[in-house]
Amino acid sequence: MARYSFRLPDIGEGIAEAEIVAWHVRVGERVEEDAQLADMMTDKATVEMESPVSGIVVELAGEVGDLIPIGSTLAVIETDDDGDVEAPPADTPVEQQIEAETPGAEEVSVAEVAAPAPVAAAAPAPVPAPAPVVTADHSRAVLASPAVRARAKDLGVDLSQVQAEGDRIRHADLDAFLRYSGGQGYHAPGASRARTDEPIKVIGMRRKIAENMAASKRAIPHFTYVDEMDVTALEEMRADLNANRGGRPKLTMLPFLIVAICRTIPQFPMINARYDDEGGVVTRYGAVHLGMATQTDAGLMVPVIRDAQDKNVWQLASEITRLAEAARTGKAKVEELTGGTLTVTSLGPLGGIATTPVINRPEVAIIGPNKIVERPVFDGDEIRRAKLMNLSISCDHRVVDGWDAASYVQALKKLIETPVLLFAD
Question: Is 289 tagged catalytic?
């Protein structure tokens, strides 16, 4: 028998350590060559670590949430070979290390992630592409991630009893089931019973979000400006365009807002900028690489629409749909999640009266459209029905003055309230 020490390889330029976000094996279990050992998260990606050998797992480096330095032992596997096996040098890139250990093995797969935006603490990040699981009574197939299945098992919940909002059961579905079932899943919906306290370790993407948001609030002196806009004419135009869209994607408010943002940026270049704290340099960007805050199971992610200023409303609608789906399914690439120069965050119908969004550092501004409501308004001596929307903008006061923020929103308001100007040269 021999012991193989698998050391955490170089998984990216400048990466000194990675966080354990999931173990796929336990001590004492047998693991086959190329089978998943663990998921490791860096600032840029979640990397699936695969076993280069077959054997019995005799040692694991730590628990979920622990940070492991590059080059340290991640797992020790007892193989059927004679003599201990030495792993390749730790600074060998991950793809080369796997090839060196197991000739012909495929490259490690990468599920890209990005962070920022404030969200309440959530359950551990689900593993992409969950496998279907059949409950004990085999009455129906249940789709759920390994993390959800493990949590349900610990709580004693039969997943066949849980209703899913989408195509698979998520942590939110399990939470809802527990709320209405009194905590354990087998009580009447009307039962009055407090839920069991559930400590949740802050790890993975949730930890990255927490770190980024805390750093943003510590470093950036935020201020928020809110103004009301009459979107009646814009909503009528949107309805007309959707009625004649053919096979093109349905238009929401967001593509029109993005066009307005891009058309006004040349007059207010300080809004489309990034601030280098250490270098003391503000870079004003000519192109608008617009971040789009997107809700996922793991938390808020911000895919980036590249060169938004060059796209029309139909192209923007297609790109919004594509990037949102990529973020939600964990298929977004690193380059699609980085490099933003300005961010838009929208809660859609849940938008509320006003928001005070947190800036996506190192950007200097973030724009938040709020909920559209119908109210009577005075139009001269007459009263008419109007659709109104508040729009919020949070800015870095080190770079953007209040006058500039207010003037920028007024320029946006002019385009939004006279939507024909969005399409004028």
Answer: no
Q: Which of 34, 43, 227, 397 is catalytic?
A: 397
Spatial strand order in the sheet of 110-112 = 67-69, 17-23, 36-41, 45-50, 110-112
> What confidence category does residue 11 fall into, taking pLDDT thresholds of 50, 70 and 90?
confident
Confirm or reject CATH 1.10.760.10 for domain 205-423, answering yes or no.
Answer: no
CATH number of 2-112: 2.40.50.100
Tell me the H-state helices in 128-198: 146-155, 171-181
Eight-state DSSP code of residue 276 = E
Give Cα 279 distance to the centre of its chain.
Answer: 28
Would you say 170 and 160 are in contact if contact means Cβ atoms under 8 Å apart?
A: no
Q: What is the pTM of this model?
A: 0.66
**Residue 363 DSSP one-character state:** B
- Alpha-carbon 424 to chain mean position: 35
Query: Going by DSSP bridges, is the β-strand pair 290-292/342-344 parallel, antiparallel, or unpaired?
Result: parallel
- Provide the 8-state DSSP code for 168: S
Q: State in Å, rounded, how far the first CA of the chain is from the last one.
A: 75
pLDDT, tens digit (0-9, with 9 covering 90-100), for 272-318: 999 999 999 999 999 999 999 998 887 889 999 999 999 999 999 99
Across 238-266, b (16+ Cβ under 10 Å) vs e yields: beebeeeeeeebebbbbbbbbbbbbbbbe
Asked whether 269 and 262 are in contact (CB, 8 A), the reply is: no
Alpha-carbon torsion angle 174, 178, 184, 190, nearest 10: -140
Give residue limits of the domains in the chain: 2-112, 123-199, 205-423
Give, for 328, the enclosing helix (H) or strand (E): helix 313-328
CA distance 285 to 271: 9
- Residue 184 has a pLDDT of 44
Q: CA 229 → CA 92, 237, 377, distances in Å?
A: 56, 16, 12
Rounded Cα gap, residues 85 and 355, in angstroms: 57
Task: Give catalytic status of residue 80 as yes or no.
Answer: no
